[in-house]
Amino acid sequence: MIDIKLFMYFKQISKLVFVWWLAGSLTQVNAQCDCGRIDQLEKLLRNETSTRKRIDVFNELSAQYFATKQKVDIPKARKYANEALNKARESNYKKGKAAALFNKANVNYDVSRGEGADFNTTVSLYDQARALYEEIGDKQGLARVYEGLGNFYYANAYLTSSNNTNTRKAVEYLEKAELIREELLKKSNLSEEQKEYERNQIGTTLSKLSEIYSDGLGEDDKALEFHERANQILGENDDNIQAQLGNIYRKRAEEKNRKQNQTLMIVLIGVALLLLLAVGLVVNIGRTQKKNRLLGEQRAKLARTNKMIEEKNELIEAKNQQMESHNQELAELNKKMNRVNKEVELTNFELNEKNEEIKQTAEALKQQSDALENQKLKLEKAYETITLLSQVGQDLTASLDFEKTLNTLQSRVKEMMPVDGFTVSILDTQSNELHVRFAAEFGDRKPTSSMSMDDTHHPAVWCVKNNHQIIINQREDLHSQSFYDTSLHESFNSMMYYPMLHEDKVIGAVSVQSRLIAAYTPYYADIFKTLVLYASIAISNAENYRTLNGALNNLKTTQDQLVEAEKMASLGNLVAGVAHEINTPVGIGVTAASRLDSKTKEFSEVYKSGKMKRTDLEKFLQTNQEGTKIILNNLDRAAKLVQGFKQVAVGQSNEEKQKFNLKVYLEDTLIALQPKLKNKPYTLDVDIDDLTIESYSGAYSQIVTNLVMNSIIHGFKDREEGKISLSVKANGDRVKMVYSDDGNGIAPEIIDKVFDPFVTTNREGGGTGLGMNILYNIVVQQLKGKVEFKTAVNEGVTFVFDLPMNV
Fold first, then answer.
1. How far is the CA of 518 from the CAs of 464, 510, 522, 574, 586, in angstroms?
2. What are the beta bridge partners of residue 188?
3. What is the Cα–Cα distance from 783 to 789, expressed in whole angstroms?
């Protein structure tokens, strides 16, 4: 008889020996790397200066070292893969990044030793490489990733899993790789050498699938199917193909022998069982006869005993009937008593319940009355506070005079809360100092002073630097929190410091002090926070007014014409609008100049160190050219913005009409806006026809600038990403310009007032509400065109302009 366990054990040992032999063979084959190519690549790496070419060399070196399958070369393969990945990320070279991720996945986890990063990390690296190849449309790279995933899952199937999950995944990815390569073969633009390479790769993949279906899944029919396909590609004389075919036939012979041995064993076991049953049957017959005699005697005894038990049971039954009769009578009496008790309990419960309801109702009415009274008082107080704060906001923002604004703020703060000291400090980023521009104690003005922003123990400096409020309830708390302010009067106990913000930037701090302990409750803190918000807007407007004082002469004519047209309410609001609009090009110019200064210092340090390379000089010259162009464009645009306000106000332009290339001009405008979009997750999609028109170039620049800034400030507020699209097409003798974003859209309450002056949802952020009004006047009055828009909440906004080519 053949021992099945011994047979199965021998089969498993044979399988492991075969896998070991196959792995060793593959290792030896793969170890035959092109060492001359490695030397050539390392020499090329030392001389190559192009970032993308260096990334490609890193990737090829990683692949060459991995191909050796030698343990000493795996760290080199991993090193070059990491170098390529880091460089590709820095330069945003997607193809190089995908190849690096693929190489890193190959060396990330050594399946045969169970070493390296975890299984899921390796799969994640393959998936990242696959996603990048799909994004850039690299079919050959995508096929390599699927082959890598398939081989990786099949290798894990042998060592980590007794089921077929990983093997099935290996088949899925290898079949995807084969389909992609077949698609590549069908393309006519491949060279004969490329087609031959793809055919060999398809044959290798089909051969691998045949091996998996045979050894991994035991599906010989499928294995033969893929073997035939591989045979058609690689040819019948390929050694690997013949080895697979022999393996399939060998497995079929082993399976046939195993079934024959099992059948023989079952027959022998059946004969042995029949003999055992016959012997047992003879023995059991004798034992059964003896047991039957004993059972007859026991049945007679049991019959006598049962008769005695039946007689006793009859007596017990009679007594039980008497007891049941008595119990029924007692049960009836108990039921009557229970009914009476329940009726009494129910009556008492209902009375108690009604009394409790009456008490609860009375208490609830009293509580509601007290709550309504308290709510009424709170609402009255809140209404008074809101009314007063609204009036304070109007008073503060009505003036552009810095000193008058601060005096108004001090008097209003003293009206609404206990105040003995009041200070306003303005941040000077150039000198890195905090200037005390207004200080008063007990109604008397104090001289101005300054403090370094490095003095973080001063509460005002800490408040500005951390953009966070400070509330002190007694003087000892100031020292316990490591703060000090020697300028404060010694009698002050309570203090509040709040940062002033403008367009999400800290511009200074406002503080109040009181002799009272714990004077500033949360109620006063909320009021103070609102007053500081109004003060931030007013002070920022006043500072902008002071900064733009040189431009006021150019705006005098615009002021008179706006007053005559009754479209603007006051000079202060107009100047605030000018500041809002002109800050964009001026800010971009300042940013570009600052970047040029920083790059010049870096270039100077490299030059002084004696390590300057040609690439450093080329990069500096390129940066210098871009920065100079940005500064010149934005200074020119700033001048045209000031001129544009005159055009909007009087309904005509002093700018001369000229012929210009609209595409070139708009592209220059978008280049100037790049600093506003840089380092932000917004994308810009531009499609502009090459048109030469006779119109006002500055007007087009201002339209695009206003739209882009509105998208950044309003459309993408509180959003992590956004897309802007600009399309300019010829439409007969007119220009059709379409601008859209996928942001927040326009709020329903202002849709009908979008083009009215001073309509904004960003008043607290410094918005004046003049941007869309200026845009409308430019389009209708200056360019003699039309503008329409459509919007929906959280679905963005689209503006459509119909403008003549010749105004």
1. 23, 18, 10, 43, 45
2. none
3. 18
